[in-house]
Amino acid sequence: MFNIVVGHSEDPDSLTAVKEVLEQCASDLADIVPKAGILFAAIDFHHALILQEIDSVFPGIDLIGCTTDGEMSSVLGFQQDSLTLILISSDTVEINIGVGYGVRENAIAAAQQAVRQATEKSSTAAKLCIPLPASYTADGSTTSGESILKGLKLALGLDVPLVGGTAGDQYRFTKTYQFFRTEVLTDSLPILIFSGDILFSYGTACGWQPIGLKSIVTKAHETVLYEIDGKPAIEFYQHYLGKHPPTIEHPLAVYEGDSERYYMRVPHTCDLEIGSISFLGDIPEQAMVRFTDISRNEVVAASETSLKTALKNYPGSEPKAAFIFSCCCRRWVLGTRTKEEYQLVRNALSTEVPICGFYTYGEFAPLEPHGSTYYHQETFVTLLLGTK
Amino acid sequence: MEPANYESESRLHELEKTVRILKKKLARSEANLEKLEQTSELRESVLKGTIRELEESQISLQKHGYELENALANLKALQGKLVESEKMSALGVLVAGIAHEINNPINFICGNLIYANNYFQDLLRLVQIYQQYYPEPVSAIQQEIKAIELEFLIQDSEKLFQSMNMGVDRICDIVTSLRNFSRLDEAEFKVTDIHQGIDSTLVILNSRLKSVLNFPKGIQVIRDYGTLPLIGCYPGQLNQVFMNIITNAIDALEEGLINQQVMLNEKSLIPTIHICTEVLNNDWVMIRIADNGQGMDEKVHSKLFDPFFTTKDVGKGTGLGLSISYRIIVELHGGKLDCYSAPGTGAEFVIQIPTRR
């Protein structure tokens, strides 16, 4: 038995919303007691109250979650300022949770702490991990997605895929919250690990297109880009954006070696005095880079590509649930068309399959089946789960 | 609680929830609107940036295009100059060498021919004196006189020496023309008689003028020379221009005859090259070289002076003659070179050279 139910409320009042969500879940669960849960909540809710309420209805439930930039579920589709809860119960699949603290200062240690906690009670090897770490911790300081990825790989081994996303705060970029049981945290790494008889698949796609001329990174150190083509990095962006500072809508396409494959690096802050730009990921020196732009059609098309990849690679025949992790920048550029991302997934799956997901500040997923996990930005990730 | 009260309280809760949601959505919409306006400005900047980059690329491409076109034209011209100058240099050396080599033996012949004639006349006189004093020689002598046809020999020898002198004179003329044409010693700017240059060219081309296909009479050359002053020029190079234009005229006439495209009236049946010279306003010397061949169409005419343009068969023409000629007249002499032609009306090349430079 592997059962997943979803509740979703758009009521801005925390108590009413959580009660509504719990009623929906309880109704679908019948008498089954959920083993674990994942909560995605908008930033303005009274999160502690919500967690207390869930714990009072399902005492001691293994719950993780985070604040978001938008929520999606098969109950209400795409929503903002809403609350969605997914509850999982199974007698063949082991589900364990763990949390690491102080992830901004020491992501490796936090990852080890979370993994240790999640696996110590587990009788079988971990098969899949869903991380929901902090992104912005306080005053605009951020965690490092790549360090978290590195830490989790070190603790879990390279064979365990990581599929998840970092917490959001409704495009404010100041402070995000994570949930662990009844704790509301700001600088943590909650994870959920599946082991046992679980089947899953995933797919990723982006949709951003590089434009303009290729240039060379002539000076960079880790996430800080100082010079492109021997000129201050800010001038490269100013060429396209004029007086506007670099924004997350226009990430940098970084090319791998001489190939035409590229990955995205999103600008975070800039130092106008020295003309440097700080990115949410490392920028290698001597790499070829290009400015990027989007068309909404291509972004929507990418979410369909992601889903199709996941469906094609699903090892069974009946996925039981779908998780979707989509980048906040996608939501922002898609505007009123954001709901199409969810709708594409909904249309392709049986109506009985519950869907739940959120808009993230960074995504984790491998690029191919059995491949190593990457830290993404601007990406749409689909995760299909089931036991047959 | 009464059912009616319960229902109205439930409706009230529902309404309160709706109001909360709407309030939240309104706040969100306002925030979104503000951000959208910012994004709109941003996208406008991106568009402008992209357009600017495209414009820059376009300008840069155009510039490169022009540069490449210029470079190609220069390269072609340079190649043309190089080929032609190499060719002319080699030809000049060859012609000068041949002229020099022929000149010496012809001088021996020319000089000794007078003595040979004198000796022969002396011997004839001696024979006549013998005949006068011995009117009845022995039979062996009489037989020999008969055998050699002495009377005819005496009469014919005079014509023989006249013919030999003419031949030698012609060889001398040709040698002088060759030396004159190659002008290896006259590569520099000097005062020259233009007519002499044209005549030398015609002497060199004599064989081509005389043996034209199906026309035993050859090409008729009409020299309509005016009185020209001596003018400062590069005589060797100028002769090259005459050579190129007259050769082209001969080619055109021959081609016309082969194609039988010349009009079948009396006048145009005689292939003719008309060379006319005159002075214009005391400032310019004008040389017109016209043929009555088949002429050319506008397409050919427009490319006439382009390097490597030729209508001749592969291997027959380099397509450089007229472009080199144009360069010699226009660039070297500050003159003008024009061509007037239409299909069926022949072609006229007009060279104008300033009399004073």
Can you describe this structure?
The complex is a heterodimer of chains A (388) and B (357). Chain A is globular. Chain A has two domains: 291 residues, no CATH class; 85 residues, no CATH class. In chain A, strands 14, 15, 16, 17, 18, 19, 20 and 21 form an eight-stranded antiparallel β-sheet that branches. A six-stranded mixed β-sheet of chain A has the order 1-6-2-3-10-11. In chain A, strands 5-4-23-22-26-13 form a six-stranded mixed β-sheet. Chain A is an alpha+beta fold and 388 residues long. Chain B has a domain of 175 residues: 2-Layer Sandwich (Heat Shock Protein 90). In chain B, the strands form two sheets. Chain B has a five-stranded mixed β-sheet. Chain B has a two-stranded antiparallel ribbon with strand order 1-3. Chain B is rod-shaped and about 185 Å long. The termini of chain B are far apart. About 2% of the residues of chain B have low confidence.
Question: Mean of residue pLDDT of chain B?
Answer: 84
Q: Count of helices of chain A?
A: 8
What sequence of helices (H) and strands (E) makes up the elements of chain B? HHHEHHEEHHEEHHEE
How big is the Rg of chain B?
A: 43 Å
How large is the count of helical segments of chain B? 9
Strand content of chain B: 5-15%
Low-confidence stretches of chain A: none
Strand residue percentage of chain A: 35-45%
SSE inventory with pairings:
The complex is a heterodimer of chains A (388) and B (357).
Chain A: E1 2-9, H1 14-29, E2 36-41, H2 47-57, E3 62-67, E4 71-73, E5 77-79, E6 83-90, E7 93-101, H3 107-119, E8 126-131, H4 145-156, E9 164-165, E10 178-180, E11 183-185, E12 188-196, E13 199-205, E14 209-221, E15 224-228, E16 231-232, H5 233-241, E17 252-255, E18 262-265, E19 267-271, E20 276-279, E21 288-293, H6 296-313, E22 321-327, H7 328-334, H8 339-348, E23 355-360, E24 363-366, E25 373-376, E26 380-386
Parallel strand pairs in A: 2-3, 22-23
Antiparallel strand pairs in A: 1-6, 2-6, 3-10, 4-5, 4-23, 7-12, 8-12, 9-24, 10-11, 13-26, 14-15, 14-21, 15-16, 15-20, 17-18, 17-21, 19-20, 22-26, 24-25
Helix pairs in contact in A: 1-2, 3-4, 6-8
Chain B: H1 3-133, H2 139-148, H3 150-182, E1 190-192, H4 194-204, H5 206-210, E2 220-224, E3 231-233, H6 235-259, H7 266-269, E4 272-280, E5 284-291, H8 298-303, H9 321-332, E6 336-341, E7 347-354
Parallel strand pairs in B: 2-4
Antiparallel strand pairs in B: 1-3, 4-5, 5-7, 6-7
Helix pairs in contact in B: 1-3, 3-4, 4-6, 6-9
